[in-house]
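Q: what sequence does this backbone want?
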């Protein structure tokens, strides 16, 4: 059986709950609708679930006019996409750019829901932000762009690699522990029908009618330890990844992709073909020691 795209996911607001979709348009900066909104503090610095774990409980849904936001214990709210003229200065890791302010009502809803003062912004023009690979020492091309994902436009994971990781997790866990869901890793595309960890070796992959460059493995952070259903943190999967997948002092799961076929529609069930790969055994593609490594997706 050929390798298959088993599911597609987008995350309308950075660090919030994702949406599983049957189809998605590939854009140069990622899947359409993926990570075009984020929260910032008073200084314009990005606020993520790394600092505010409760963000993973907020469920954004894309609507024709903007977003519908729901969360446990609060009334839902509708947010309109702001006019691009309402630009404010923001920063996300090493990137500084501008985004459109969503307005006081959205800010008040998020601040009350999270218990911290935040502002919601919308990246109306994702060509403003360069990928991590477009900086010296990174992977990718100087013209590559990304929306509000951490470093690169898309993340691919495989069901076989998750199964291998879950074997390690369950072998070292108390009886009754449930396997980790793929939602812990917040991928955009999930593939099945390949050997575990073979994505390390991919360099060019075709998914349906779209081709992608595999530009860097994904170094995982504390965000993966937050249960997406409760907002509570634990040691897994970082503890098990550190035993299985530790390179350059980091734990790795998944591979970052850059699209070379904008406009193509991906569909769950699409065939996946690896067009270029390297010999296995070298571990994930990563920035050479001494150069900055992009944060996890």
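A:
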């Amino acid at each position: 059986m050929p390798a298959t795209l088993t599911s597609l996911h987008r995350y309308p607001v950075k660090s919030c709950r994702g949406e599983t979709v049957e189809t998605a348009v590939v854009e140069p900066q990622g899947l359409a609708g993926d990570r075009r909104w984020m929260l910032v503090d008073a200084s314009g610095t990005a606020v993520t679930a790394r600092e505010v774990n409760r963000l993973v409980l907020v469920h954004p849904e894309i609507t024709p006019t903007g977003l519908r936001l729901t969360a446990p214990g609060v009334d839902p709210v509708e947010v309109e996409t702001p006019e691009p003229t309402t630009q404010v200065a923001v920063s996300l890791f090493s990137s500084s750019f501008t985004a459109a302010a969503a307005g006081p009502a959205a800010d008040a809803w998020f601040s009350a829901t999270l218990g911290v003062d935040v502002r919601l912004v919308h990246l109306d023009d994702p060509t403003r932000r360069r990928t991590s690979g477009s900086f010296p020492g990174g992977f990718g091309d100087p013209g590559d762009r990304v929306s509000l994902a951490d470093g690169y436009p898309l993340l691919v994971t495989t069901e076989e690699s998750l199964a291998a990781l879950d074997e390690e997790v369950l072998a070292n866990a108390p009886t009754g522990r449930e396997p980790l869901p793929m939602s812990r890793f917040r991928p955009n595309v999930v593939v099945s029908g390949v050997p575990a960890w073979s994505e390390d070796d991919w360099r060019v992959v075709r998914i349906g009618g779209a081709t992608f460059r595999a530009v860097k493995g994904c170094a995982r952070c504390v965000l993966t330890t937050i249960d997406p259903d409760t907002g509570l943190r634990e040691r897994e999967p970082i503890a098990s990844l550190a035993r299985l997948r530790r390179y350059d002092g980091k734990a790795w799961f998944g591979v970052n992709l850059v699209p070379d076929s904008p406009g193509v529609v991906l569909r769950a069930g699409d065939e996946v073909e690896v067009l270029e790969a390297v010999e296995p055994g070298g571990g994930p593609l990563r920035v050479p020691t001494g150069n900055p490594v992009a944060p996890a997706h």
